[in-house]
Amino acid sequence: KRVAVLISGTGTNLQALIDHTKNPANNSAAEIVLVLSNKPDVQGLYRAQQAGISTKVINHKNYKTREEFDAALHESLLAGGIEIVCLAGFMRILTGGFVSKWKGKMLNIHPSLLPSFKGAHAHKLVLEAGVRVTGCTVHFVSEEVDAGAIIVQEPVPVYPGETEESLSERVKTVERKAYPAALELLASERIQLQENGKLLWK
Ligand code: GRF
């Protein structure tokens, strides 16, 4: 399956996906053929170039509305013959129209055990709540943010004296395992998003 990864930053998840899909030992059903970023000059773009993957910057600041930005994204994905989209630290909220076009074909990774601690400040919320376990979640993207069907989760203990930075770092280590696992499940068609929004294991 031809995969595009959408990023906004450092791209550690992108790197994990590249390493997994390029490793012949994994015999992956996924091939990353395009990396799109809404921000120029981010480290993730450099990672893609190092791996010989096409990159494109679609700067959201050049678009008046979310609809126009999403239309440009969609056009690039179609032009690239993309079949699966992975959001990996992509920090733009996508419109309902765009999400519905990629229903069942678009994944996201979130740094908490969903449905707890949705949104852009998961680690902060985790520390405020005082929970002793957090983790990461890979899920299908639905219109409601961080709410689609869950595919893979990995737990991470929360230690006393933990900071957002220390937590983010340890959650990222499990993200590196969770995202490739989820992508592989979708690319090899072992999972499917059903009409009722629930996951089907095949
Ligand atoms: C990850 O923690 C991911 O869960 C969140 O944003 C971060 C992206 O990190 N959505 P990176 O760009 O993959 O390093």
What descriptive keywords fit this protein?
202 residues; alpha/beta; seven-stranded mixed beta sheet; two-stranded antiparallel ribbon; 6 helices; 9 strands; globular; binds 5-O-phosphono-beta-D-ribofuranosylamine; Trifunctional purine biosynthetic protein adenosine-3
What's this model, at a glance?
This protein has 202 residues and is an alpha/beta fold. The protein is 35% helix and 24% strand.
Description:
The model has no long low-confidence stretch (mean pLDDT 97). Helix content is 35%, strand content 24%. It has 202 residues and is of the alpha/beta class. It has helices spanning 12-22, 43-50, 66-79, 96-101, 122-129, 164-187, and strands spanning 2-7, 31-37, 54-57, 84-87, 106-110, 133-140, 150-157, 191-193, 199-201. The chain has a 7-stranded mixed beta sheet, covered by helices on one side. The protein is globular, with a radius of gyration of 16 Å. 5-O-phosphono-beta-D-ribofuranosylamine (GRF) binds at residues 7, 9-14, 44, 88-89, 109-111, 136, 172, 175.
